Amino acid sequence: MCRSxxxxxxxxxxDATEEDMAAAALQYVRKVSGFRQxxxxxAEAFDEAVAAVTEATVALLEKLQVRGAxx
Length: 71
Known about the structure:
This protein is an all-alpha fold. The chain has a domain at 18-63. It has helices spanning 18-33, 43-63. Helix 1 packs across helix 2 (43-63). The longest helix is centred in the C-terminal third of the chain and has 21 residues, at 43-63. It is elongated, with a radius of gyration of 14 Å. InterPro entries: DUF2277.
């Protein structure tokens, strides 16, 4: 699932931005929902899901400890 989402943690991506994380979240929500663009009555739920997944991604990458990575 979501094979096009790139790995954002070091050493694969040293400088992942929140924009990168939001793009990955959008791809994930599109895949899970089955909608590339939600209908107007689903837009709020879609946007909230993208924001929640982005937030979770930021939190995850902040907490991950990668062996051999420079601190």
